[in-house]
């Protein structure tokens, strides 16, 4: 089984959208795939469309399997901050890793694990998505990034966070809402490709990249 760690240059850049769509496509190709969200926080009115629920819909698993129910924090702050503000117990990256439900096994099986926020956003009392990627020995890190203004800086900083944190995974940058008709999008793509980044612009391309490696 390979582990695909899904992160983003910031919060709300499309991680869950990419996760849902990519899991859909992988399953359509017959890949056994699990979706995992080790902890999630959200505004109370988001219940019903939380990340775990969206990912569960794609992977065909119960939302409580995607994210254990006691790691659902109905407060839009980083999960460890939300836990603290709600008067709930503190937790560590090791706690989250130990609680990740087993998924399909076998060499072709995958699990897609979504972090929270950006690479350095707190995910537990003692770590972030970089720490999680290292703890899970992720095979691939998918970094979702905006396609427009500011993306080169954001991608360079976020990818450096993973390499500085000792994550040796293959990295794929997913340009969110990429529009080939936009000159800036094309130029950003070209610049990042010249920088040596592996880039995808659609979930179908990402799924192909995950299957072929
Ligand atoms: Mg998300």
Task: Give the topology.
Layout: E1 2-8, H1 15-28, E2 33-36, E3 40-41, H2 51-59, H3 63-66, E4 72-73, H4 79-85, H5 93-99, E5 110-114, E6 122-124, E7 127-128, H6 129-135, E8 140-146, H7 151-164, E9 170-176, H8 183-194, E10 198-200, H9 203-212
Parallel strand pairs: 1-5, 1-8, 2-5, 3-4, 8-9, 9-10
Antiparallel strand pairs: 6-7
Bound molecules: magnesium ion (MG).
Overall, the morphology is: globular
The amount of helix comes to 25-40%
The count of DSSP E runs of length 2 or more, i.e. the number of strands, is: 10
CATH C-level name: Alpha Beta
pLDDT < 50 runs, ≥5 residues: none
Distance between the termini: 12 Å
The helix/strand order is EHEEHHEHHEEEHEHEHEH
CATH topology: Rossmann fold
Attached small molecules: magnesium ion
The overall average pLDDT, rounded, is 97
In DSSP terms (H or I, runs of 4 or more residues), the helix count works out at 9
Structural class: alpha/beta
CATH-derived architecture: 3-Layer(aba) Sandwich
**Whole-number total of structural domains:** 1
Radius of gyration: 16 Å
Please state how the strands of the largest beta sheet are arranged side by side: 2-5-1-8-9-10
CATH superfamily, called what? P-loop containing nucleotide triphosphate hydrolases
| Largest sheet descriptor | 6 strands, parallel
Strand content: 15-25%
